[in-house]
Amino acid sequence: MEEIQKSLEHENQDLEQFIKNNGVRIKSQTIQICSNIQEDSPQIDLLQKRRFTINRRRSFFTIKLPVNIKQNNIPSNQSFYQKYKIHKKLGDGSNSIVKLCSLVDKTALESRKYFAVKVFKMETINETLEIQREAQLLQKMNHINIIRFKELIYENNNKKAYLVLEYIQGSTLQQYIEKHQKITESEAFFIIRQVFEALSYLEQCEVTHNDIKPDNIMYNPETGRVTLIDFSTSRKIVKQNNLQTNLGTLNYKAPERLNNQHSNPKSDIWSTGIVLFYLLIGQLPFQDDLKGKIQQLEQISKQVNEELQQHIKELASLNNEKDQLGQVLNMKAQDVEKTLMNELIRLEDEMNRHITNQSSENLKIQSRISIIRADKVVLEETLANLTQRITDLEINVGIVAEK
Asked: Are residues 258 and 231 in the same domain?
């Protein structure tokens, strides 16, 4: 009991310091949803009943959310610290503190297994609903590239919620880049492909992540596994939704999100493209005032050959995000190589026409030819490495499945 009390005191200090440094963020969509509810709406009754239920029932609640939730608060005889033991702090989330924990019960099958717990301070009904939303979405997910949900525990007496999740070894992609400074093209493509696999699964579940960035992508170079985390800004796709959201990180937002248009899977694809750009180039294509720097993209596009531009236009013009993801995931390596070879032939012809004029322009063309030839070699190596990594991954998945 004394150990639990000490843990709670440390946790309160951590949360107070976190709120002091960062404030408490309430997502814009929740505010807008509540503001759009009419006074005589049944949703108001639901909110009042939910508030009443939380105040009147037992102090500790554990939630293992069903697909269709009618009543979220299920009584539990155990508080979080009666069930779990905290080992150390892992970091700060967007609106929570993340810690490493394990089950106290030594007889449990998962007694030696570690989990990551997000600790929330609940001050309002809006915050409670936001936490429930994240748990509800994660509870439905079952994909190797998406963090797995275990349970959600409320402690109403100290206004805290504990979202227990799978503990993922490795580091965020941002931490990995900062540590290694440079990342190879083959590794970048290997990582991004797994992100697209996760997005393809989310699209099937009719969910958008809304905050794809290196800080929300876990990467374990030893196993090769890439995992999407932090679904606090995720939303269920609702057709003809008249709510406008302002979720996500500015430098990774899709253009339609800057104008407060509806969020959709294409927005996540755009953000993933920004991540790929960052991995390959080492800097973001847009920084600070995004709206004032859209011209940067136009300047970059002028340096890309016409055939590759056409591929990009075709990808952008697809009618639905499923086709778009399919194109990305099923892109043939031969098509990419063909594009590079056509560019190489064009540049060689151009050089031959100006062979008599040893100008600086000619030297630039020679340099570009060398770069494209090098790219072709890198592409071949990348394809070989990717094939091997996929084979290894399939073997690992098979071993895990057998276990």
From this structure: yes
Same domain, 225 and 317: yes
Q: Is the dihedral of CA 366, 368, 374, 380 positive or negative?
A: negative
Per-residue pLDDT of the chain (403 residues; tens, 9 = 90+): 566 666 666 666 666 665 555 544 333 333 233 333 333 434 434 433 333 333 333 334 344 433 333 334 444 557 899 999 999 999 887 678 999 999 988 676 666 789 999 999 887 777 788 888 889 999 989 999 999 999 999 888 888 999 999 999 999 999 999 998 778 888 998 999 999 999 999 989 989 988 899 999 999 999 999 999 999 888 887 664 444 454 545 554 444 444 455 566 778 888 888 898 888 888 887 665 544 444 455 454 444 455 545 554 554 454 555 555 555 555 545 555 555 566 566 666 666 666 655 566 667 777 777 777 777 777 777 777 777 777 777 777 667 667 5
Residues 190 and 129 reside in one and the same domain: no
DSSP single-letter state for residue 124: S
Residues 343 and 278 in one domain: no
pTM greater than 0.85: no
Please count the structural domains in the chain.
Answer: 3
Choose, from 211, 215, 230, 268, the residue flagged as catalytic: 211
DSSP classification of residue 146: B
Domain of residue 309, residue span: 171-330
CB 228 within 8 A of CB 144: no
- Domain co-membership, 74 together with 99: yes
SS3 271: helix
- 320, 339: one domain: no
Residue 211 is a catalytic residue: yes
Q: Is 121 annotated as a binding residue?
A: no
Query: Could you give the angle at which helices 333-353 and 306-316 cross, rounded to 10 degrees?
Result: 150
Q: Both 41 and 141 in a single domain?
A: yes
